[in-house]
Amino acid sequence: MRDERTALLDVVESFLLQRHDLSPVTAENYRRRLVDFARWCEFTLARSATVGDLEGGTVDAFLGHLRLHVSAQTARSAWVALRSLAQYLANRRIHDDGGQSALRLVRMPKVKEEWRRALSDDEMFRLMQVASEGEFGHRDSAIVMTLLGCGLRRGELVGLRMGDVNLRERRIHVRASSSKSVHPRDVTVPIETLKALDLYLEDYPEDARDQDAPLFTDRRGEALTGNAVRKLFERLAVRSGIRDLCAHMLRHTWATNFHRSGSGSRFDLMAEGGWSTGRVVERYTKARPFEERRRAPSPFTASRHAQKEKRPVERGPSPKISALSDKRTAARGNSYAVV
Prior knowledge:
- The protein has helices spanning 8-18, 24-45, 56-69, 72-91, 121-131, 137-150, 154-158, 191-202, 226-240, 247-260, 266-273, 278-284, 290-294, 301-309, 312-315, 323-337; strands at 165-166, 171-174, 185-188.
- The chain is mainly α.
- Strands 1-2-3 form a 3-stranded antiparallel sheet.
- β1 (165-166) and β2 form a beta hairpin.
- Residues 335-339 have low confidence and may be disordered.
């Protein structure tokens, strides 16, 4: 029977098993942060961490340690994992505070938001050019164009299989197993990306075109890994002169260009990007360049068009002339005529 004296690490695996909705990456991050807390408790308290150590004062001290010696972002990540575990324990009455989470009053560590920028137009076209050069130009170009045109995450890119790409329907199917949101979705393939994928698939061996075969492979024909994509973009950063270039920057660029080009509504952007909240859309979508905003229609344009479209009777009240005023005007005209 588990209670507050149970070793903390003994309940972690059960907790992660119940949280099957988490993506593999998120689950591994939760496990790492929970193990860090258990090790910190062992070092600080000189004993193994127990379920009872999951209380406000101890967790606050641990988060303060992470903010000071690691980073505020790591502290926030640990706060999320610990709060989720505390809620799990409260729901099962293993460790709670009056039926509620023991960490419900622990505040989330503040993190200074660092927005990753989008590529400028010149940088984007320069990257497209250098990616198409070299021994693996068709493959690297297809990778860059898929990220720029479809906004895939790095994990979603390496998780693609041959059967997930339908060039005729201009569709890429993102599997739930590779998606951070743990939900499958279909992504539209723009014509520019379609051409790059078509050129790449011309070089793909016919005998290896199984539906479950990886779409992007290395020189040995094995599935490309996330680490291999990271190294690819490190090389592209040197060749293009874009020092801060990384694969995820292309997702920001895609979202910004989707908005700039009017490729769809805000809801379309959420569906294509695999986002569930509009706040994430605001984080990824950057404002249009100043020169482009300056060429946009004036804020008075709609008002002027509406005024032009009005019927004459809607422009304003017509003057009302009575019969008496007509007689007065005629009499006045006659008096002027007599000299």
